[in-house]
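Re: the 346-residue chain
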Amino acid sequence: MNKTTCIGLFGTCGNSTWRTGFIKKYEELGISYFNPQVPEWDPSCAANEARHLADDDILIYPILSETYGIASLAESGYAVAQALKPGSIRHILLFVESEVNDQLKEKNPQLADESRRARHLVIAHLDELKLPTVHTAQIREYVRASTHLTHTDPKAETAALAVALTASWSAQGLPPEGDHFDEIRRHWISAGADDPDWLALIQKIAQAIGRRMSVSDFARELGLSKGVTGYAYHTVPVALYAWARHYGNFRAGLEAVLNCGGDTDTVGAITGALLAINGTIPEDWSSGLCDYPISRAYLEKLALALESRPDEINQQIPSFAWAALPFRNLVFLSIVIAHVFRRLIP
């Protein structure tokens, strides 16, 4: 991480202790941070807090159920307004619990209700804005839920989140060069800011980009000379590097990772998905696809449906010929068996 980067730990204050773990880890890693929670508050604290709110590179903004959070909710609006400025590459990680705890509800029901409505409004407005540098907890919740279907290692979640954030950022159509690379690097850092192994990998990606290393040389730099393994901290860094190194060139990027060998289906799938956002899949690669009942036309319709609003997806998803699957699988099994016997014949 760039030593000038500063992470602002905003959001819920009062007697909350959520910052403790973050501060401990940041001090271990030598990362600069700002903590607005002070033993004795005076007007000079407001000026210092305002400066960090306007200038810090990454703002972490949990608005928890421990307080009504009215001030934090208002302050989050200012932070988002800063992210709207042209050329802004600041990142805001916003987590808003839907309502206050039962104790606060009993103490002041009216204020608790106002807080609940304000919390829902903040999330709803951010969902409509779809700002690439403002990350609500939703994208992280989606990644966590999907990752935990198959993995329990926190590193798998960090790697998956980095891919999701890259896809979200890539939709802007900005090449990851110069200041734009610094921006996407902040995305990657935010995916695993408390993991020194992850931060070291991001540093290696940045160094390799500066040296214009080939994807295969970068893989060797990670100790993967015999091929990229399926381990998340091997597969994802190589895929991210290939995406950045060959941005917009689907063919070159995908060929580069496949030539590294190893777990090519996984690293190829991640790299291909990212490169396809801003690159064109070669016609000679896609025109001959045949895996009935899945076809190129079906996949295009499905992709368009998944772009729809959540309440419209069910109406947009194309019908699928489930009844054809047993016959398709039978044909495929016959081909596999025939191939096995053919290999057994001298």
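Residues 150-288 form one domain.
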